[in-house]
Amino acid sequence: MLNITLFSQIISKLEKSRFNKLVKSHQSDKHQKGFNSWSHLVSMLFCQFANSQSLRDISNGLRSATGNLNHLGMLKAPSKSTLSYQNKNRSWEIFRDYYYILLESLGRQAHFKRTNFKIKSKTFLLDATTISLCLSLFDWAKYKTKKGAVKMHTLLDYDGHLPAYVNITDGKTADNKGAYDIPLLKGSVIVADRFYNDFSLLNVWDSNDVYFVVRHKNNIKFNSVKELELPKIDTNTS
Fold it and tell me: pTM to 2 decimals?
């Protein structure tokens, strides 16, 4: 079962004021019958995060969190019949519109200087970061003798500022090894550092028509086949 405290931290990142504006615009609480749009949203998000398989799972899961529901902005857990009725009758457009609001808002939170590349292909940034964990609490997170950790391998969409894919492994997994499972988009460009200078990995990318820009290692051995001149930059192009 999903840890309700962790779930409440996720819910706290949502902009409820903007959601309330959508509620007024769509009039989605006009016939709420004690179960408003916000409670509906939280319930269906709980369904996804808790991997609920039925309305009963959602209802029982939220009911087991009695006392913590106020942190989610809910007064009580919904019944199966209430969920069923609102899923059938409440307009889905409000949730669609809120999704796009969140997408835009979260994208703006990634503050890094952008460069407008003259590349029409979709560009992704690939990197990994190690997250330390207490080994006495997470004994499965093997890293070092007295330290625990997991490694998060992230493929970042350069245009949207949001992760396109995240692969979480144990802390010992090398950066390049954790990259074999990332989804590949034909014709896209992956930009990564020297830890991804793995010829087997690069061969997989090349075989799937994926371009890449990867820094080479200082001790790499290579022979120059030929050198090509860089194209001249058209300064008149905006």
Answer: 0.60
